[in-house]
Write a sequence for this structure.
């Protein structure tokens, strides 16, 4: 994958404790625009699923009159996915259970504002 | 009684955040003002959702209204908050008795501490044990009829002074037999999560795997019921969350939290491949939304177990 304007941002997110990967993904087609992941992470598949989840959440929030989605967090037994979107682009991180989600959330919401 | 209600009402007016709503609701209930008592109890629970006594008094109000299903829900909530809550245990013992679960009724009634043993409790326990004994000898199938508890309970203990036993006798005579597996009631299904939530700006929905609403309600700021639309939009979320976690090897997904400009939405997988959704205003702390989700999930599990 070619380097993009998001490389530095993704590298910064991937340095957080417990983060094993980060992406910028297009919500519309689920394709990763850029990624920074550890070996063994199924980047394309996860990017597509995260984009789809974000899309469903956005549509549901629109139907409920909740406004635009600013942050999404999917928790599992051993870790989870966080996503923050702007327009068609979604910033996604994959983290283990030991990650500091509060700190990651703040960084991602700040970084998402810069997505264009 | 009227003086007591007036005094407690004044106390509550002076300090609306106090716990005086609990004795006030109970006094109103004993005075037969059940609708007012219900409003007072629900309003109080909006402020104090984790007070076991408040759930207990709401349970008694439901019981006096003949709604044993909701009464049982509230007593169960009281016991979750305070596992040693004797009145909640007694109340559930009565509900078990009415449903014909004699062993469970006997276990709950006999677990009451000495301080809580009134003549009514003693009589109720004797009646349950008698029924158990008769069943053991004759092998008959027990069905609790109206007025199954002995009249002695009412005549020995004053309704106004005793905490529970006379009231359960009153309920036993005035309510229809509660079926063990009641059919889903649409109006009740919509209200399923009301007492599990903390305010009018919070909603909960139980959605099946096909995106159809099972229980709960969602009314938007314009007063429109948009529960079906939200449920449809969320169809498939469970499957996608599960697939994403499988790809990552992170185990089973436990919750999905969405922060939006005007609301926080939390979801979690529920039994029978269903999905539980809780929404709250943006002013609600995110951590509290997760707690609400846990409470609603407990309610959903109980309800699904009953109606499935």
């Amino acid at each position: 994958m070619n380097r993009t304007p998001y490389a530095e941002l993704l590298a910064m997110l991937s340095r957080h404790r417990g983060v094993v990967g980060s992406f910028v993904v297009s919500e519309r087609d689920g394709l990763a625009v850029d990624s920074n992941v550890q070996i063994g992470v199924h980047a394309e598949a996860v990017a597509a699923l995260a984009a789809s989840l974000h899309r469903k959440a956005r549509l549901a929030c629109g139907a409920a009159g909740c406004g635009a989605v600013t942050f999404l967090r999917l928790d599992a037994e051993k870790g989870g996915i966080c996503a923050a979107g702007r327009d068609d682009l979604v910033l996604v991180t994959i983290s283990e259970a030991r990650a500091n989600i509060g700190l990651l959330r703040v960084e991602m919401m700040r970084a998402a504002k810069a997505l264009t | 009684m009227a003086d007591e209600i007036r005094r407690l009402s004044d106390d509550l007016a002076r300090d609306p955040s106090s716990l005086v709503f609990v004795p006030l609701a109970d006094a109103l209930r004993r005075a037969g003002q059940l609708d007012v008592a219900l409003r007072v109890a629900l309003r109080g629970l909006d402020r104090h959702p984790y007070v076991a006594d408040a759930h207990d008094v709401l349970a008694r109000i439901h019981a006096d209204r003949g709604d044993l299903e909701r009464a049982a829900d509230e007593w169960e909530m009281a016991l979750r908050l305070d596992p040693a809550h004797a009145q909640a245990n007694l109340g559930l013992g009565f509900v078990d008795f009415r449903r014909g679960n004699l062993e469970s009724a006997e276990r709950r009634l006999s677990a009451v501490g000495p301080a809580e043993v009134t003549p009514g409790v003693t009589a109720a326990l004797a009646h349950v044990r008698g029924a158990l004994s008769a069943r053991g000898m004759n092998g008959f199938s027990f069905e609790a009829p109206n007025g199954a508890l002995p009249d002695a309970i009412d005549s020995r203990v004053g309704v106004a002074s005793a905490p529970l036993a006379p009231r359960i006798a009153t309920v036993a005579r005035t309510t229809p037999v509660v079926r063990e597996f009641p059919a889903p009631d649409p109006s009740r299904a919509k209200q399923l999560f009301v007492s599990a939530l903390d305010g009018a700006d919070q909603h909960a929905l139980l959605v099946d795997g096909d995106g159809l609403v099972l229980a709960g309600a969602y009314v938007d700021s314009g007063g429109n019921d948009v529960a079906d639309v939200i449920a449809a939009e969320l169809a498939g979320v469970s499957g996608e969350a599960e697939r994403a976690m499988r790809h990552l090897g992170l185990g089973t997904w436990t919750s999905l939290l969405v922060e939006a400009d005007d609301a926080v939405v939390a979801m979690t997988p529920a039994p029978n491949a269903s999905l539980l959704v809780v929404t709250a205003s943006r002013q609600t702390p995110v951590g509290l939304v997760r707690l609400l989700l846990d409470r609603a999930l407990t309610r959903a599990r109980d309800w699904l177990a009953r109606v499935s």
